[in-house]
Structures are given as C-alpha cells and as structure tokens.
Specification:
2 helices, about 80 residues, globular, alpha+beta, about 35% helix
Length: about 80
C-alpha cells in the first residue's frame, strides 16, 4: 500500500513529494524534490506525516480500498506513542 502527497520541506521551504509505504506490516517513508526524480529513502516521519497517513487510511477505508481495521489501529498506536512536537 502506498500513500503519496506533497508538503513543504521545513529546511528549504520548497515543495517536496512524500510517500508512505506499508509492506509486510512495516511502514517506510521516502521523499523527492522533483516529480520525476528518484526517491530518497530513510525519511524520519513527523507527527504531521503520521496524521496525514491516518487521515488517508480512514478515507480509503470508507471506500474499501484495501485498508483494514488493523492498518488504522497500527497507525493510531504509533501516533499515541509519539511525543508531541
């Protein structure tokens, strides 16, 4: 499962492309600066990124696009364990 979106890079102030992937129960985040550029793996997700993923999962769940209750519960658990920024 992949969730893609754009945001503003806090270091440069420019738009960046983000992707959260879930494979075998593990979430991984990656990013790139240009639409057609190569993905850079190893992005440490912020609380805002996790909140975006949770919102996207909830919207997909209503449309039954491969999202289960366990997927939503997993991200909610991750968010509960994160410190507030």
């Amino acid at each position: 499962m992949q969730i893609k979106w754009t945001d503003i890079d806090p270091e440069t102030g420019q738009r960046r492309f983000l992707c959260a992937e879930r494979f075998a129960g593990v979430w991984r985040f990656k990013w790139k600066r240009q639409r057609r550029g190569d993905w850079i793996r190893g992005l440490h997700p912020t609380r805002a990124m996790w909140e975006h993923v949770l919102d996207s999962l909830r919207r997909r769940y209503r449309r039954r696009e491969g999202v289960s209750d366990e997927d939503i519960e997993q991200v909610e658990r991750i968010l509960r364990e994160l410190p507030y920024e």
